[in-house]
Amino acid sequence: MTRSRSHSGLHYVIAAVWLAVTVSLASWWLSVGLRLTNRHRMFVWEGGTFIVLLVAGGVAIVLAIRREHGRRQAIEAFFMSFTHDLKTSLASIQLQAESLREDWPEAAPREPLDRLLHDTVRLQIQLENSLFVSQPDGRLLRERVDVVSTFARLAQDWPELSVEVRGSESVIADARAFEAVCRNLLQNAVVHGGAARVTVSLAPAGSGRVRMTVSDHGRGVSASILPSLGEPFAKGGEARGTGMGLFVCRQLVARMGGSLTFLSASAESPGFTAMLELPGTR
């Protein structure tokens, strides 16, 4: 919202400068014309009309900018209010489903309940991704984020997934954006890779940065698809989903001053691997 106000202010400044320059040029033309010819009446009428039209056009531009800014603010306010209520409802559904799972009889089939939990997590991720995509100019904070505790908290959404974190580095990032990146990578491992295990390796990368490698032990992706990952709507093979998860990851990591690279499978990492570099706390 702050960046939006600054952009709107820049539009007003540009409109004001354009209006001042064009009116000044028209006034100079009128004064020169009056000095160089004796047809004063014609120049007064033509020059006056020209200046009036320029002023009217400038005022119309300013009013259009103001109206567009108000419309954008109204849309953002509606979208934020709607998504907040939706996130609250999804969190309530997830909490109730988790409570049901704890009390679920051992002999009863749990597949419908597991699908409900997975779909709830997927909707939460898609909603969060939509928020970040709709606000590409949104301001991100710079704060210390503990990677180990972040993955420990997120792993609870996928009880069938084993998440191992090697290392204890912290990064300087926006906590909400970093969590969205990690959540998308875990979701990608479960849904698209069919992985049951994810390994997160942390190590210093030099120049005060931290390298975080997230490797799953799933199906991986074809080497021909790898270069297109991270682009809008790019998906690996016949995978489900919109293909926006990795795109959001790459955009958020770049906005936090880092880089994100996708690596092909190797003997050490047979599945899909994402390597992030972010500013560290050292």
What is the topology?
Blueprint: H1 2-36, H2 40-103, H3 111-134, E1 143-146, H4 147-154, E2 162-166, E3 170-173, H5 175-192, E4 197-206, E5 209-216, H6 245-255, E6 259-263, E7 273-279
Parallel strand pairs: 2-4
Antiparallel strand pairs: 1-3, 4-5, 5-7, 6-7
Helix pairs in contact: 1-2, 2-3, 3-5, 5-6
Description:
The protein is an alpha+beta fold and 282 residues long. It has two domains: 1-138; 143-279, Heat Shock Protein 90 (2-Layer Sandwich), CATH 3.30.565. It has helices spanning 2-36, 40-103, 111-134, 147-154, 175-192, 245-255; strands at 143-146, 162-166, 170-173, 197-206, 209-216, 259-263, 273-279. Strands 2-4-5-7-6 form a five-stranded mixed beta sheet. Helix 2 runs antiparallel to helix 3 (111-134) and helix 5 runs antiparallel to helix 6 (245-255). The radius of gyration is 28 Å and the shape is elongated. The mean pLDDT is 82.
Number of helices: 6
- The oligomeric state is single chain
Globally, the shape reads elongated
Order of helices and strands: HHHEHEEHEEHEE
Alpha-carbon distance between the two ends = 31 Å
Count the domains: 2
Main β sheet profile: 5 strands, mixed
Widest β-sheet, arrangement of strands: 2-4-5-7-6
- Whole-number average pLDDT? 82
Task: List unreliable stretches of 5+ residues.
Answer: none
Bin the strand percentage.
Answer: 15-25%
Using only C-alpha atoms, the radius of gyration works out to 28 Å
Helicity, in percent? 55-70%
**Class by SSE composition:** alpha+beta
Strand segment tally: 7
